[in-house]
Amino acid sequence: xxxxxxxxxxxxxxxxxxxxxxxxxxxxxxxxxxxxxxxxxxxxxxxxxxxxxxxxxxxxxxxxxxxxxxxxxxxxxxxxxxxxxxxxxxxxxxxxxxxxxxxxxxxxxxxxxxxxxxxxxxxxxxxxxxxxxxxxxxxxxxxxxxxxxxxxxxxxxxxxxxxxxxxxxxxxxxxxxxxxxxxxxxxxxxxxxxxxxxxxxxxxxxxxxxxxxxxxxxxxxxxxxxxxxxxxxxxxxxxxxxxxxxxxxxxxxxxxxxxxxxxxxxxxxxxxxxxxxxxxxxxxxxxxxxxxxxxxxxxxxxxxxxxxxxxxxxxxxxxxxxxxxxxxxxxxxxxxxxxxxxxxxxxxxxxxxxxxxxxxxxxxxxxxxxxxxxxxxxxxxxxxxxxxxxxxxxxxxxxxxxxxxxxxxxxxxxxxxxxxxxxxxxxxxxxxxxx
Length: 435
What we know:
Blueprint: H1 2-20, E1 42-44, E2 54-59, E3 66-72, E4 76-83, E5 94-96, H2 99-108, E6 112-114, E7 120-126, H3 128-141, E8 149-150, H4 151-155, H5 164-171, H6 173-183, E9 187-192, E10 195-200, H7 202-216, H8 223-231, E11 238-247, H9 250-256, H10 268-285, E12 294-302, H11 308-327, H12 330-342, H13 352-407, H14 410-416
Parallel strand pairs: 1-7
Antiparallel strand pairs: 2-3, 3-4, 4-7, 5-6, 8-10, 9-10, 11-12
């Protein structure tokens, strides 16, 4: 018991000494501030944007949510495209501020800032027409007779959600003029004194979007869109593949093989046989460099091929759908696509050749799918039949072996188990003399 008490006392003394020992942990030189709710971001702005340009929050034309845009009264509007860094390699930006910001940060003990991520926001031009579409959506959704309204009346519908669009028009008359000019591209206009009145028109909007799609599709679309939405979408099922083997420098090959020129005077059967021998001989004798003269061409036979007109119409439709799905409200998009398909209003594009090709292509794909499933079923059935025959043969063989074993005596079965390795057979003792 004494030892136990002494041990406890020693433990208490040791712990008290450790508590009395001063801490050697070094304090931080700078106290880190609390994380900001709006951290700095890296924006790449156009060089032609003036000093009056401002970043404002406007209603997104497609998703009806506030989004950031750069408005310049001289050069127009810009949207921010986010370019994200791969998540597998975390990175950040080291930002050095201006002279005034540096003097402020030096007072606080900091000269630069570090972002939490490495995302870039690139300002790209956007047509002000799309920024005005949310203001025109109220008149589009109305079921009554549409009236001519001023631009202020249209913009007042967004004053509660995103008032910045109205404020920019009041602050910059040049920007207001630019916005009204683009509103006139999708509206019927009427002059009322010194003021222009606007009434939304689906016919003008579909014509404007179609004109933008034609500019986008005049050349090939981006590689990813061209491959997925044009090439593969118009690709027909493959009927078969022919492997064509062409031989070049045939005369030199025949001479190297040692064949005389008199073979040309033989019959057609001899000619085909000699050419086959020459090809075999040259393949065995030539080197790897000479084998490059032999070209294996794959000739693919498709059920049908899309004409150049059909390909152009497909590019135009994909470009039209892309613009609508990115910058036009969903309710308007449904109406515009229907008008384009029916060729109503100013949508003068004739998509009948493309529709006929797509309908025929869908029929061919359905037939190919049915034939493939039928061939798979027949192949599986033949494999099942083959396996059934193999099982039947195995069963017969096993039954035959069982019958043979049942007729054998116990002594014969025991003799079969004897190891006869190295023993002479019984017939070796009954060979004729002299053999």
